[in-house]
Specification:
heterodimer, A: 544 residues, alpha+beta, ten-stranded mixed β-sheet, globular, B: PmbA/TldD fold, nine-stranded mixed β-sheet, 10 helices, 21 strands
């Protein structure tokens, strides 16, 4: 199935622009197939074949990734099941250094002979490319860990939940949304299991079992008299969890202008609200363009963090490795070296990590065998660090990688990818109500919508799902046609308040795109509700 | 494996069907060899090669269907995959939108989608091309980052009602960004062809070099409405949004830019300037595409927008059956008619305007109007009295392709281009358009 067909058939063409372009729809597998893993001893045997073959051809470093990537989609619209698909992708990627250059080859034919041939191809590509090299690859030291393993701490494996249970849930969700006024709804559950085995010529054999889940819906309501329509997407967050994310625990609900969700999600309740809210959006006041104080919920702010903080602190972009596609970065090394570049004001503390429980970026080791950790990117408003992998660490004078290397499948080469990047909650005790109370003329934005940012990450524009006008400290009703435009540094310096840790929540996406050929990355961003003063809001209504 | 001949593919798929016991069975088979090389900071970075095959079996009983796949091709594996798809079909709920598989189809003669020279590309060829590109960067004291990828593959399908289709294809894409040493200027070029003999990596790199040097020291001008000339790389990413949204069901359900009140659509109405004609044609010599789709439907020449009028929309087979109309599939690529002017002619005829060479990070803002936002990138220039006067800083725009195509001044000569957003290939002209809406400035270079 072509990606576009899938997106259209599922209604995602309108609802989500974050799905990756590659790697997801590779191959379907039958539903009745047991979710077994490949035996670790067998993986070690195959990895050793590749490691030895590459070394014998002249590789000075080799790593091998044997991956079994499973996805499951259950897609429904209105009262029917549209699609139930299990996909599996199984194979091996071999990365080598020979004559100082990187080489990579991948195969889905796991015979001894095919593995050895792929290793030889990777070495020959490296040697062919070495004549184009300015400087040999310099890898930060990394000890071998021996045979170790890591598993997402899930409580309920989502792949083990019967299809019927998922179908029943989604059809109920659709029914509730339509009862509440929606004309159309597409809903889905999207599950990911990455079974990854990493082996390197430095003596690591790392077995990991990573789980992610994303329930979502996309609603459209039409005013048939005028032909106008409005949409509302679910307020769920794709999570590094099992089916326990669907538990809808009361303690995980935040009651604001609409109900918001933390560590578990009530899909039925959100669908009811969304069905009603699309009707309200149709009747809402069109926004008056101008300067507003924005109060941004974490279900919205995660995406602003992703685009304006996550991407410009990627060291490969800073250095120029993404100049031809994803772009470079305004956070040049001189700004970091100065130790006084005001990325934001003193309220702004942003950390990178691959540790937060329930986050999409959580894993034990990255895809070049580095143990994952946590570090500051922005400290009291100052740029203090970047996201780094082994062949970049020496550029910052670091003695080891920060564990940011990732590939979206066995068939693609690993490279620097974003870990979780999160705004730390405010240090003063402050609730969302406290923040809204202080705003005279503002807009409270919930949910992520349209998003766009320039290639160096200065100028951005964001929409949202729900926009509430704030007048003199009170919510005054719904607005529509809202988008805001700002400049990254101005925006983060305009932050006037951040709610405390009680309001800290994760948002995120499965489909963060970068690289050529393009690869997708799953990443979460934590935040508490925050206020930004004097932001330029435009009206997006047009006539055609 | 991975590229089977027509006879080999037919024999394998017949064997697969011989194991089928379901009411309907359909088999898709494909395989490909791909290679790529990436460079940045005037040096090679990553590269790779990958070979893959896939067999997909769909079995159906009534409106219950199941799909299973495999990438092993011994007899036992083939029998197993058919059996699994049948078991799954029996477990699946009825899908009221399931449409019975097609019988034998008549396709137009094969389009020339496969070129042996492209299929023969190897690691040495890729490295040689990159070496040429790097030399131009060094000669001009610029920093290059680029990507060259090639693919060769086949696709085939067969079903229990006697349908059989087979096609081979090749593709080569090249794109490069050159930046000045101090990162004060940036230029880009993108090319994509079926036949590698049409690819001139050095010429494309020279164009990017000229744009990089010429865009250094950009001045800021006020955002607002300007006459623009969109080079094909820039126009493509907006035009494709129009094409991607020509789906009949979305329009008839009331949730597309083509929807009107009370379930009516704008099909048959003039929505853009009468000089706009957009069609698809699998046999176009400059942009050959497959004569059949993945579900077996024939791909034929179709007008989508003819002299400004929405002539055809595309349909799923289910929606076409429900509406009792021909199930026209969506196109693999598209062609837009142009004029006889060169890009230089368009610039010469412009009193005041902005030359946009590339647009970046295009996202839908409002599906109701097809409003898109994004930014200019890698070389934006101010035109006065028919000449490029100076480079200007990048803008953010908010514009709908529908509004833009109602403000046509002139079209140039169409050329083959690749979308920087979706990798879709198309033949489109450079476009000179009035009142294009830039909403803010960006400091990005």
């Amino acid at each position: 199935m072509k990606r576009r067909d899938f997106l259209y058939n599922s209604g995602l063409g309108v609802g989500s622009l974050l799905l990756p372009a590659t790697g997801l729809f590779a191959k379907t597998v039958p539903l009745d197939q047991p979710w077994t893993t490949v035996d670790t001893a067998d993986k070690k045997r195959m990895a050793d074949i590749a490691l030895n073959a590459a070394k014998s051809k002249g590789a000075t470093y080799t790593d091998v990734r044997i991956g079994r990537y499973l996805n499951q989609f259950v897609v429904t619209r209105e009262d029917k099941v549209q699609n139930i698909v299990n996909t599996e992708s199984y194979g091996m990627g071999i990365r080598v250094i020979a004559n100082g250059a990187w080489g990579f080859a991948a195969t889905d034919n796991m015979t001894n002979d095919s593995i050895a041939k792929a290793a030889a191809l990777a070495v020959s590509i490296a040697k062919e490319n070495s004549r184009l090299l300015k400087e040999p690859v310099q890898l930060a030291p990394q000890k071998g860990y021996g045979e170790v393993s890591w598993k997402t701490p899930i409580k309920k494996n989502a792949f083990d939940v019967p299809i019927k249970e998922k179908v029943d849930l989604l059809l109920n969700v659709n029914g509730e949304a339509m009862k509440a006024g929606a004309n159309y709804i597409t809903s889905l559950t999207f599950l990911v299991n990455e079974q990854k085995y990493f082996a390197s010529s430095e003596g690591s054999y790392i077995d990991q079992d990573i789980h992610r889940v994303w329930p979502a819906f996309f609603i459209t309501t039409i005013d048939s008299a005028t032909g106008k329509f409005e949409t509302r997407n679910s307020l769920s967050a794709p999570s590094g969890m099992g089916w326990e994310y669907m538990d809808a625990r009361p303690e995980d609900k935040i009651h604001s202008a609409t109900t918001l969700y933390n560590k578990s999600y009530d899909m039925l309740e959100d669908a009811k609200a969304a069905g009603r809210q699309t009707g309200e959006k149709l009747k809402a006041k069109s926004v008056e363009p101008g300067k507003y104080d924005l109060v941004l919920d974490p279900s919205h702010l995660w995406l602003t963090i992703h685009e304006s903080v996550g991407h410009p602190t990627e060291l490969d972009r800073v250095l120029g490795y993404e100049a031809n596609f994803a772009g470079t970065s305004f956070l040049t090394l001189d700004k970091w070296q100065s130790k006084k570049f005001n990325f934001g004001n003193k309220l702004i503390n942003i950390k990178a990590d691959r540790l937060q429980p329930g986050s999409l970026g959580a894993m034990g080791y990255d895809d070049e065998g580095v143990k994952c950790g946590e570090w500051d990117l922005i400290k009291d408003g100052i740029l203090v660090n970047y996201q780094v992998i082994r062949d970049q660490a020496h550029i910052l004078g670091l003695k080891q990688s920060q564990g940011c290397c990732y590939a979206d499948s066995w068939s693609d080469v690993q490279f620097q990818r974003m870990p979780n990047v999160s705004l730390q909650p405010g240090k003063e005790k402050k609730s969302v109500d406290d923040i809204i109370k202080g705003v005279e003329k503002g807009i409270y934005i919930v949910g992520d919508g349209s998003f766009s940012i320039d290639q160096q990450r200065y100028n951005f524009q964001f929409g949202g799902q729900l926009f509430y006008e704030i007048k003199n400290g009170k919510i005054a009703g719904m607005l529509r046609d809202v988008a805001y435009q700002s400049n990254t540094q101005e925006f983060w310096n305009s932050c006037a308040a951040i709610a405390d840790a009680r309001d800290y929540r994760l948002g995120g996406a499965f489909g963060d795109g970068k690289g050529q050929p393009p690869q997708s990355n799953s990443v979460s961003h934590g935040a508490a509700t925050a206020r930004f003063n004097g932001i330029n809001v435009i009206n997006t209504a047009r006539k055609i | 494996m991975p590229i089977l001949t027509k006879d080999e593919a037919q024999a394998l798929m017949k064997k697969v069907l011989s194991y089928s016991k379901s009411e309907e069975c359909e088999v898709n088979l494909n395989g490909s060899d791909n290679g790529n090389i990436r460079y940045a900071l005037n040096s090679v970075s990553t590269s790779g090669g990958i070979s893959q095959n896939q067999l997909v079996v769909q079995s159906a009983y009534g409106k219950k269907s199941g799909v299973a796949t495999i990438n092993e091709f011994d007899d036992a594996s083939l029998e197993k995959v058919v059996k699994r798809s049948e078991e799954l079909a029996k477990l699946a709920p009825d899908n009221p939108e399931y449409v019975s598989i097609l019988g034998p189809q008549t396709y137009e003669s094969d389009s020339k989608t496969f070129e042996a020279a492209t299929a023969a590309i190897d690691a040495k060829f890729r490295a040689d091309q990159v070496q040429k590109s790097l030399q131009i960067a060094r000669d001009n004291k610029l920093t290059a980052a680029g990507f060259l990828e090639n693919s060769a593959g086949f696709a085939a399908m067969m079903n229990s009602k006697g349908l059989f289709a087979y096609n081979t294809s090749t593709n080569v894409n090249f794109n490069v960004t050159l930046r000045t040493a101090e990162s004060t200027g940036s230029g880009y070029a993108i090319r994509g062809y079926t036949d590698v003999n049409k690819l001139d990596v050095a010429a494309a790199t020279q164009i990017a070099a000229k744009k990089a040097t010429g865009s250094a020291g950009a001045k800021a001008i006020e955002p607002g409405k300007y006459t623009v000339i969109l080079e094909p790389a820039a126009g493509m990413v907006l035009l494709e949004q129009l094409i991607f949204n020509l789906d009949a069901r979305q329009a008839e359900e009331g949730r597309s830019f083509l929807s009107k009140a009370d379930g009516k659509t704008k099909q048959g109405e003039k929505i853009v300037d009468e000089r706009v004609t957009i069609y698809s044609d699998p046999h176009n010599a400059d942009l050959p595409t497959s004569v059949w789709t993945g579900d077996g439907r024939p791909q034929e020449k179709i007008n989508w927008i003819n002299k400004g009028v929405v002539e055809n929309l595309y349909y799923s087979r289910y929606w076409a059956q429900k509406k009792n109309v021909k199930a026209i599939p969506g196109p693999d690529s598209f062609i837009m008619n142009g004029g006889t002017s060169t890009l230089e002619d368009l610039i010469k005829s412009t009193e005041k305007g902005v030359l946009v060479t590339k647009l970046w990070y295009i996202r839908s803002v409002d599906p109701q109007t097809l409003l898109q936002t994004g930014l200019t990138r890698d070389g934006t220039f101010y035109i006065e009295n028919g000449q490029i006067k100076f480079p200007i800083k990048n803008f953010r725009f908010n514009e709908s392709p529908v509004i833009m195509l109602n403000n046509v001044d002139a079209f140039g000569i169409p050329e083959r281009i690749v979308s920087t957003e979706s990798n879709t290939h198309a033949l489109i002209p450079p476009m000179k358009l009035r009142d294009f809406t830039f909403t803010s400035l960006s400091d990005a270079i």
